[in-house]
Design goal:
Layout: H1 57-69, H2 91-97, H3 100-103, H4 115-132, E1 136-138, H5 144-161, E2 169-173, H6 179-186, E3 190-194, H7 204-211, E4 219-225, H8 237-246, E5 250-255, H9 267-270, E6 274-278, E7 295-299, E8 311-314, E9 327-330, H10 346-382, E10 400-402, H11 412-421, E11 428-429, E12 439-441, H12 449-468, H13 470-474, H14 487-492, H15 498-503
Parallel strand pairs: 2-3, 2-4, 4-5, 5-6
Antiparallel strand pairs: 1-7, 6-7, 8-9, 10-12, 11-12
Helix pairs in contact: 2-10, 4-10, 5-6, 10-12
Bound molecules: pyridoxal-5'-phosphate.
Pyridoxal-5'-phosphate (PLP) is lined by residues 83, 143-145, 177, 179, 225, 254, 256-257, 278, 293, 295.
């Protein structure tokens, strides 16, 4: 992109701050003559100087267009960020979410005037029930982590309702997503970590010990991510669920990355009591910038009465009938209450519904098949330089976690930064914690063989560079506006204003 230059002779890489472009006295608009009497503005509301940049319109347009090109996006490049499912988002989803009846529907409209939106939510609940084998669904939670909180609060309500107030311990395998132990703590539980075997499987002996004898009486349940964050399917899952159920606990499944399983395995059939799905990962919807998400939560028979309300149902009197307003909101009898204002992020629900209808039953299964195929293809292509220490002799699911050891002091962060020079978004790094120098790669099902080949070639080239020119990895990235950031400081003390930037 270096050759693309703006009118003022800058490449997109070094777009200047808008203030630098300012020319005193230059204007972007010519206002018409005032044809009403002038009234002075109240001086106490006016600042002496505002210091706005003075630009013509074309320069301003170019400035912001060049800035926008600095955004890394799935519509622009490959985005193999592990545990994030950065798949392609079909544009038809946007067209449907943009239909007036959906986009402009007010959440406080009476049910009878909002039947289309309610019908969509109902059908989505039903589709998700069919795909997962669960008994009921809430579409309220705004994100995966909020879905987890919702699920764990239901588990807590379930035990308390039965007078089982001693049940405060929740087991979490060490291959779990970081949000799992955090959710346990936020829901008032005590997290107990269960170690993984070198194969990536849960250590069954440790699990049994944590549920044995008197310990069973204080067990609230288990939170498990399957496939785990190592990208491996937990084959002992039914045995694990049986052990927890025998001890009186319930099983929470983290289904954020459901694209490895959809259409193939139903978690409800496996015995899971509750699971959230990230509709904004597995069921499309652009994400990654902290925008609206949806962590829909499915439950089995034990928890169905505890779901947050309201959820959409068909009015009993009208089931199958010809009533004009059959869809109604109901609140389950023992509901834990609302977890989100109104009905969740409705626009995301429309996208998920459209995506499911677009794919159909066969398509949903093909998503899973291709997600797994793509990850395994990539894993094998790069395995000599990027081996997977856990489960190296097994097939992975939708992602794999490599532990590169390229020598010459080259670390995972060097590899990640060098990938940026080659136009790729880095994979997830240093997570999960149990893998040394972890590089967590999730290609997703929507990438072509050519893209996967190009990415593998680049990873191999970086491994070569580690031998021949390690310095170039240590100083990467080379073409970005800023080099290596103090990422903690950037997150904790963001500099959001030009003025502050200048003063500092
Ligand atoms: C992304 C993810 C979450 C959290 O989802 P958010 O929508 O970011 O809150 C939880 N668990 C797993 C396995 C995930 O990949």
């Amino acid at each position: 992109m270096n050759e693309i230059t703006a009118g003022v002779g800058v490449s997109p890489q070094d777009t200047p701050l808008v203030y630098v472009l300012s020319v005193p006295g230059r204007v972007g608009v010519i206002l018409p003559e005032v044809d009403v009497p002038e009234t002075p503005l109240p001086t106490n509301l006016l600042r002496e100087t505002l210091g706005l940049p003075e630009l013509d319109e074309l320069t301003a347009v170019r400035h912001f267009t060049l800035l926008s090109r600095k955004n890394y996006s799935i519509d622009g490049q490959f985005y193999p960020l592990g545990s994030c499912t950065m798949k392609y988002n079909p544009k038809v989803n946007e067209a449907v979410a943009n239909l007036q009846g959906f986009r402009r529907a007010h959440p406080l409209l009476p049910e009878a005037q909002n039947q289309g939106a309610l019908a969509l939510m109902y059908q989505l609940q039903e589709s998700l029930k069919e795909i997962t084998g669960f008994t009921g669904f809430t579409l309220q939670p705004a994100a995966g982590a909020q879905g987890e909180l919702t699920g764990m609060l239901m588990i807590r309500a379930y035990h308390q309702d039965r007078g089982d107030t001693k049940r405060t311990r929740v087991l979490v395998p060490d291959s779990a997503h970081g949000t799992n132990p955090a959710t346990c703590t936020m829901s008032g539980f005590i997290t107990e970590t269960i170690a993984s075997e070198p194969s990536g499987a849960v250590n069954l002996a440790a699990l049994k010990a944590a549920c044995a004898g008197e310990k069973a009486e204080t067990l609230a349940g288990l939170m498990i991510t399957n496939p785990g964050t190592l990208g491996l399917f937990e084959t002992q899952i039914q045995e694990i669920i049986r052990i927890i159920h025998d001890a009186g606990g319930l099983v929470y499944g983290d289904g954020a990355n459901f694209n490895a399983l959809m259409g193939i395995v139903k978690p409800g059939d496996l015995g899971f009591d509750v699971m959230h799905l990230n509709l904004h990962k597995s069921f499309s919807t652009p994400h990654g910038g902290g925008g609206p998400g949806s962590g829909a939560v499915g439950v089995g028979p034990r928890l169905v009465d505890y779901l947050p309300g309201p959820i959409v149902a068909i009015s009993p009197g009208t089931a199958g009938g010809a009533a004009s307003s059959p869809y109604v909101f109901i609140t389950p009898p023992k509901s834990i209450g609302k977890v989100k204002s109104f009905h969740g992020n409705f626009g995301v629900l429309v996208r998920a519904y459209t995506y499911i209808r677009l794919l159909g039953k066969k398509g949903i299964r093909r998503v899973a098949e291709h997600a797994v195929l793509n990850a395994n293809y990539l894993k094998v292509l790069v395995k000599d330089d990027y081996p997977t220490p856990f489960g190296s002799d097994r097939h992975c699911m939708h992602e794999f976690v490599a532990s590169p050891d390229l020598g010459k002091g080259i670390t995972t962060i060097d590899i990640a930064k060098r990938l940026i020079d080659y136009g790729f978004h880095p994979p997830t790094v240093y997570f999960p914690l149990i893998v040394k120098e972890a590089l967590m790669i999730e290609p997703t099902e929507t990438e072509s063989k050519e893209t996967l080949d190009a990415f593998a070639e680049t990873l191999k080239r970086i491994a070569e560079e580690a031998k021949t020119d390690p310095g170039i990895l240590k100083t990467a990235p080379h073409d970005t506006p800023v080099g290596r950031l103090d990422e903690t400081a950037a997150a904790r003390k963001p500099v959001l204003r030009h003025k502050m930037y200048m003063e500092d």
